[in-house]
Amino acid sequence: MEFRAFSAFTDEQILHEIVHNHRHELFEVLYKRYFPKVVDKCYSFLKKRSLAHEVANDVMSKTYEKLGDFKHNATFSSWLYSITYNYCIDYLRLQKKLHYPQWNQDNELPEIIDETEEDVFEVNFHNLMTILESVHPEEKAMILMKYQDNLSIKEISVALRVSESACKMRLKRAKARVLYLYKEKFKE
Asked: Which Gene3D superfamilies match (predicted)?
């Protein structure tokens, strides 16, 4: 079968060919399929296009090296995006020495908003992205993983290397912080 024909295959079919039939050259199909998306996710954290490309290449290399570890508990794209978010957070931690528990303590909210008391209002996407830039990268990653990439709490907790209960609490805190900051800045 011609190499080009594999571009019509599903991710799972390509992964099967790579892992079980040692067709490692087929990773190029996955690379072409996902590299632009990985670059965009990296850019959303790193804010430098050249650095985002460099980090995205590192992510794709790391993903290739770990293909044998992929458990098929989630889609390949979810697994790849988890690796991407985690890699970006680790990169930022090293560069800025970001430590989430200390950052969270230094940026404490006046009070955690009870989700049952939230009023409903329309959210502007551009304004929301502005607010996401002001929160900790780990909180931003959690919100994007949950609501943009539809990852489960378990998948997010694995990606961020925290327990599921810690993940739930951090996600709740992140949502409360984003809601609070959004209301403070944009709601009249």
From this structure: 1.10.1740.10, Winged helix-like DNA-binding domain superfamily/Winged helix DNA-binding domain (1.10.10.10)
Q: Which domains does the chain have, with CATH numbers?
A: 1-97 (1.10.1740.10), 107-188 (1.10.10.10)
What are 188's two structure tokens?
């009249």
Supply the pLDDT for residue 102.
56
The residues near 120 (Cβ < 8 Å, ≥ 6 apart) are none
As a whole number of Å, the CA-based R_g of the chain is 18
In 3D space, the residue among 103, 106, 105, 129 whose CA is nearest the CA of residue 181 turns out to be 129
Q: Answer yes or no: are the C-beta atoms of 14 and 80 closer than 8 Å.
A: no
Return the percent helix, strand and coil in the chain, to nearest 5: 75, 0, 25
Mean pLDDT of 81-94: 87
Mean pLDDT of the chain: 83
